[in-house]
Write a structure and sequence with these properties.
The protein has 363 residues and is an alpha/beta fold. It has a single domain, classed as CoaB-like (Rossmann fold). It has an 8-stranded mixed β-sheet with strand order 7-4-1-8-11-12-13-14, with helices on both faces. A two-stranded antiparallel ribbon has the order 2-3. Strands 5-6 form a two-stranded antiparallel ribbon. A hairpin with a 6-residue loop joins strand 12 and strand 13. Helix 2 runs parallel beside helix 6 and helix 3 crosses helix 10. It is globular, with a radius of gyration of 24 Å. The structure holds ligand PMT. The site of ligand PMT has 20 residues, from helix 3 and strand 11. InterPro entries: CoaB-like_sf (IPR035929). Keywords: Membrane, Transmembrane, Transmembrane helix.
Length: 363
């Protein structure tokens, strides 16, 4: 066994599986079996950030940034292209369809109004005070009807399976289980890994059982914040690396499937610009190529946090291509109305189809 596969095996044997694992595996099995029988392609789409708890009875945790926008939006475009979608998402992050209303700046009640307000003194059917109907305001009706119809179709045809996770451990156990359930699909299976996955965690043997009390934190000799009132106390968190599971996924859990990962880049620093002459785009390209070399999967989609809604970089063996939203003046830069996922998903599907025509995936 290689070092990396040893650390991955150790991760699974030393961390407890989530209590939901048997139920989620059974749901994934029924979903995959159903769609396999109907010759429908299935995409496993991961979305949202994983957490790293600091205590077993968790009060505090470290989080990974992701609202779930990329994942929830992409899921809708995959559904519109005939794919069945397993949506492995961070609990309470954005969901397909409800995303249009759930996290908007308005409260969802702002979409509604009363209709048929009954005059004073009139009675309702039951003899009590009459209640007006609650309806969607006219200006939202057309768009909501369109979302509602797509949502109902996905539900009636069992095209969308929602499976939540919270911690990085529950994410990894569930990812592995679903990947194994999807093996029967061969290269009809697609993995679209948009979740932001923790790189560091607290191993179980170092995890506190209950909330870490400030009184239990030891004094340190290094200086505390002046005037902070905490004396010399510091909470030092000692994290281990989470093994990279992409290699396992590619080589063992889903060897025939098409695998697409995302790579997030931060804007470059002034230091980088002055001393290396690199730009955020060139650093992103380098990181995407490194990921492709290391894991030998099919496609890495690079995105920079500040511009991720307007442009992404498709990197595959031997080529790199920007996918950008056009503006009304023909330049790139983005438009509020067109979602970049409406360009990303068809580009991914085009590559999946090419792979299907070419036979089994070549890693
Ligand atoms: O939801 P939004 O707010 O719209 O944000 C979307 C996004 C910016 C989070 C998304 O588009 C994105 O970039 N997701 C990937 C972020 C990420 O985890 O990058 P990474 O460099 O940490 O990991 C790269 C790949 O390695 C990922 O596909 C991940 O699945 C994999 N990985 C990561 C950690 C780990 N321990 N094992 C892994 O296999």
């Amino acid at each position: 066994m290689t070092d990396s596969s040893t650390s991955e095996s150790h991760y699974f044997s030393s961390n407890p599986p989530p209590a939901t694992l048997p139920q989620h595996t059974a749901q994934a099995n029924a979903f995959v079996t159903h769609h396999h029988a109907h010759s429908r392609r299935v995409v496993l789409l991961t979305s949202g950030g994983t957490t790293v708890p600091l205590e077993n009875q968790t009060v505090r945790f470290i989080d990974n940034f992701s609202a779930g926008t990329r994942g929830a939006t992409s899921a809708e475009y995959f559904l519109s292209q005939g794919y069945a979608v397993i949506f492995l998402h961070r609990q309470f992050s954005l969901l397909p369809f409800s995303r249009h209303y759930s996290h908007s700046t308005n409260c969802f009640l702002d979409f509604l109004s009363e209709w048929g307000r009954i005059g004073e003194g009139e009675e309702g059917e039951d003899g009590g005070a009459a209640t007006p109907d609650v309806v969607v305001k006219a200006k939202y009706r057309r768009e909501m009807l369109s979302v509602l119809r797509k949502y109902r179709k996905a539900k009636e045809q069992r095209l969308l399976l929602l499976l939540p996770f919270t911690t990085v451990t529950s994410y990894l156990f569930t990812l592995r289980a679903i990947a194994c359930e999807m093996r029967c699909l061969g290269n009809e299976a697609l993995f679209y890994l948009a979740a932001a996955v923790s790189d560091f965690f607290v191993p179980p043997d170092r995890m506190a059982e209950h909330k870490i009390q400030s009184g239990d934190v030891p004094e340190t000799t290094s200086s505390a914040i002046p005037g902070g009132g905490g004396g010399g106390k510091k909470l030092v968190v000692d994290l281990d690396p989470v093994p990279k599971f992409l290699k396992r996924l590619v080589e063992q859990w889903a060897p025939e499937a098409m695998i697409v990962s995302f790579k997030a880049g931060a804007p470059f620093s002034l230091y980088t610009m002055l001393f290396t002459l690199e730009t955020d785009s060139s650093i992103l390209l380098k990181k995407c190529n490194q990921s492709l070399d290391r894991y030998a999967h099919h496609l890495v989609i690079g995105n920079i946090l500040a511009t991720r809604k307007y442009e992404v970089l498709f990197v595959e063996e031997g080529s790199a291509q920007w996918v950008r939203l056009p503006t009304s003046d023909g330049n790139s830069g983005g438009s509020e109305e067109v979602e970049i996922e409406s360009l990303i998903v068809p580009e991914v599907i085009k590559r999946h189809e090419k792979m299907l025509l070419g036979g089994a995936a070549a890693h």
